[in-house]
UniProtKB/TrEMBL annotation:
<dbReference type="GO" id="GO:0005829">
    <property type="term" value="C:cytosol"/>
</dbReference>
<dbReference type="Pfam" id="PF00551">
    <property type="entry name" value="Formyl_trans_N"/>
</dbReference>
<keyword id="KW-0658">Purine biosynthesis</keyword>
<comment type="pathway">
    <text>Purine metabolism; IMP biosynthesis via de novo pathway; N(2)-formyl-N(1)-(5-phospho-D-ribosyl)glycinamide from N(1)-(5-phospho-D-ribosyl)glycinamide (10-formyl THF route): step 1/1.</text>
</comment>
<feature type="binding site">
    <location>
        <begin position="92"/>
        <end position="95"/>
    </location>
    <ligand>
        <name>(6R)-10-formyltetrahydrofolate</name>
    </ligand>
</feature>
<comment type="similarity">
    <text>Belongs to the GART family.</text>
</comment>
<dbReference type="GO" id="GO:0004644">
    <property type="term" value="F:phosphoribosylglycinamide formyltransferase activity"/>
</dbReference>
<feature type="site" description="Raises pKa of active site His">
    <location>
        <position position="147"/>
    </location>
</feature>
<feature type="binding site">
    <location>
        <position position="67"/>
    </location>
    <ligand>
        <name>(6R)-10-formyltetrahydrofolate</name>
    </ligand>
</feature>
<dbReference type="InterPro" id="IPR001555">
    <property type="entry name" value="GART_AS"/>
</dbReference>
<keyword id="KW-0808">Transferase</keyword>
<comment type="function">
    <text>Catalyzes the transfer of a formyl group from 10-formyltetrahydrofolate to 5-phospho-ribosyl-glycinamide (GAR), producing 5-phospho-ribosyl-N-formylglycinamide (FGAR) and tetrahydrofolate.</text>
</comment>
<dbReference type="InterPro" id="IPR002376">
    <property type="entry name" value="Formyl_transf_N"/>
</dbReference>
<dbReference type="GO" id="GO:0006189">
    <property type="term" value="P:'de novo' IMP biosynthetic process"/>
</dbReference>
<dbReference type="InterPro" id="IPR004607">
    <property type="entry name" value="GART"/>
</dbReference>
<feature type="active site" description="Proton donor">
    <location>
        <position position="111"/>
    </location>
</feature>
<dbReference type="InterPro" id="IPR036477">
    <property type="entry name" value="Formyl_transf_N_sf"/>
</dbReference>
């Protein structure tokens, strides 16, 4: 990895994970966010980017004939910035296999559950309905299997008997803001990469659950 790691962030909404990344960029951090791209013009995350002096771009999906056409245009836009890493931070689009293959090994996502549990939506409600004692969030490399790529890091928190989906979401979100900057920094430092059989940290295979953090 060169001395700086160019990162493009894709988002569709609030962008609190983008903000956590921005807030983590002290002088010794090799991460350099070169652009933020949203498929929604009203995404608050775009304003966060502008406030930080970062290029904010909009590519609305509605104008395209289909997923492949949008993803091809998105690839063209992203690649204008020559990123070493593309970070999905609440990007509410399913990505086509060709897009995912194009960024193989340099595409990270964050998901609000302890994968492989609760892929998809409504993760907090589903964890509560299942009576889980623990819940959390996961950073993983993106592969063609939705929410199924090799895990880099998970934060595990206890579920409390008084929890509602909202209270749980709030605590999980706070953990997302810790583990995403950590995983992105590890990637930027060349400590984390995607090997043939899964994610590696410092050259060693990570366990299937990734690096576990229990705050
Ligand atoms: C997060 O919960 C993340 O896990 C999911 O999308 C949400 C984005 O939140 N992929 P924010 O826009 O970063 O606040």
């Amino acid at each position: 990895m060169p001395s700086t790691c160019n990162v493009v962030v894709l988002l569709s909404g609030t962008g609190s994970n983008l903000q956590a990344l921005l807030d983590s960029l002290q002088a010794d951090n090799p991460v350099r966010i070169v652009a933020v791209i949203s498929n929604r013009a009203d995404a608050l995350g775009l304003q966060r980017a502008r406030d930080a002096g970062i290029e904010a771009r909009v590519l609305e999906h509605q104008g395209f004939a289909g997923r492949e056409a949008f993803d091809a245009a998105l690839t063209d836009l992203i690649d204008q910035y020559h990123p070493h890493l593309v970070v999905l931070a609440g990007f509410m689009r399913i990505l086509s296999p060709s897009f995912v293959r194009h960024y193989h090994g340099r595409l990270l996502n964050i998901h609000p559950s302890l994968l492989p549990r609760y892929k998809g939506l409504h993760t907090h409600r589903r964890a509560l309905e299942a009576g889980d004692a623990e819940h959390g969030c996961s950073v993983h490399f993106v592969t063609e299997e939705l929410d199924g790529g090799p895990l880099v890091v998970q934060a595990v928190i206890p579920v409390q008997s008084s929890d509602t989906p909202d209270t749980l979401a709030h605590r999980v979100h706070a953990q997302e803001h810790q583990i995403y900057p950590l995983a992105v920094r590890w990637f930027a430092e060349g400590r984390v990469c995607l090997g043939d059989h899964g994610a590696l940290l410092d050259g060693q295979p990570l366990p299937a659950c990734g690096h576990l953090i229990r705050p």
